[in-house]
Amino acid sequence: MVGIITYGAYIPRYRIKTEEIARVWGANGAEIAAGLGVKEKSVPDLDEDTITMSVEAARYALARRDIPRDAIGAIYVGSESHPYAVKPSSATVGEAIGATPVMTAADFEFACKAGTAGIQTCMGMVMSGMIEYGCAIGADTAQGAPGDALEYTASAGGAALFIGNEKPIAEINRTCSFTTDTPDFWRREGQTYPSHGGRFSGDPAYFKHVQGAAHLMLEQMGTVPSDYDYAIFHQPNAKFPRKVSKMLGFTAEQIGPGLAVPRLGNTYSGAVPVGISATLDVAKPGDRIFVTSYGSGAGSDAFDITVTDTIESDVFNRSAAPTVEELLANGKYLDYALYAKHKGKIVMQ
Amino acid sequence: MSVPRYWRKQQNRYNLKGNYCETCGRYFFPPRVLCPDCRRDGKIVDYEFSGNGTVRTFSIIRTASDDYDLQTPYAIAIIELEEGTCMTAQVICEPDEISIGMPVKRVFRKIFSEGDSGVIVYGTKFVPA
Ligand SMILES: [Zn+2]
What's the whole-model pTM score? Predict the structure, then answer.
């Protein structure tokens, strides 16, 4: 059955605290950190971008399970921050993991759900027999304009999931989606920073679509929230996933392991793939995982996943790559000036 | 450097592709067409280095050309790969963190980009292992 063959996450080493950003803008840092539920966020190094993080995540996944590189038939990188406007990130990833040249590749964009769209595409290609393995990556060096509310959360990170049929560590029982045209968040071509509809990003956007896809999944599977051991929801901050999980009937314990946002920030396309990785880091055979992503514009992809015995078998070495918890530990803290340098917010003449 | 020249060395930079001499067991990075010891008796075969090694010596760069100016101070080191050959590369760490003999492992990073509209060159750097 189709499922996740292996996975790997990547998070840069640098961090900035919410309170340090607030200090620069004369805002109440403690209040903002509490309101968003985000204490600190990751910051990319000067030489890191969506391509380098995608390569590192994919290499970690392959360290856990060595699959023949020529059997990787597709690579999709979902991101809002592809380094090139024209030139695929996915081809560089393919080259750097030795999967080229007999493979298809493309870069996906759907705000924060481009990574889960990649998982669905790989599933379709695996299930139809077009490819043996596909690699779906969600990664971002997220942008938020200086002084904008997004600056407190926009962070960097991502994860790679390899999809296949042969002895998955977790079977994907079903996927379904809920999509409408909703202008809650956008970035026009050539603009450095995104724009958003302020309060509009809540009810008619995030909550409507996440609930739409989640209800659809529960209905199609004939399940209730208590049938699942873990749940992962898109996490632009900690407040939204906590609220939507409660509305749907999931508990704080179920979303706990997959909620990386309080110490990671919002990795946009990386958020749900990192949440899945963090959950697979602790999951046991038989555990059932509920997933719902969200991308502005707007849509949600839901997944129903069951962890298999393979996760503890000889073909899979979970400890061959760092866990999300290990990637989050030992961050190096930057002040705002160094952070601005890292994010290219200082224009050099 | 021209775009075609970067591109030709891409597999060396991305995946540490070098080679070794089957006759005497000597490893080469960058790859060589002829073993300097065995000459015509040498049999050269492709090899992908593991990317694990140690710092043999290093220098902290505090003044750099425009392309690298934003990154100063940074460490450039001669890395002794575990297979026995050496290469020069950047080690990503604080200047006081690096030391001779320190174990390192490879990572995939941006090497530099040609301004805002040129090509972005990716390749291998090292981090403390
Ligand atoms: Zn020789």
Answer: 0.96
Residues spanned by the domain of B87: 3-128
Yes or no, beta carbons of A47 and B125 under 8 Å apart: yes
A234 is catalytic: yes
CB A29 within 8 A of CB A23: yes
Spacing of C-alpha A48 from chain mean position: 17
Is residue A112 annotated as a catalytic residue, yes or no? yes
The residue type at A234? H
For B57-104, how does the pLDDT look when each residue is reduced to its tens digit (9 = 90+)? 999 999 988 778 788 899 999 999 999 999 999 999 999 999 999 999
* B-chain residues near A84 (CB < 8 A): 120
- Helix and strand numbers (H, E) in chain A are 12, 14
What's the ipTM?
0.94
CATH number, domain A3-169+323-342, options 3.30.43.10, 3.40.47.10, 3.30.450.20, 3.10.450.30:
3.40.47.10
The confidence score (pLDDT) of residue A347 equals 61
Find residues 69-108 of chain B whose CB sits inside 8 Å of chain A.
69-71, 92, 107-108
The CATH architecture that domain A170-310 belongs to is 3-Layer(aba) Sandwich (3.40)
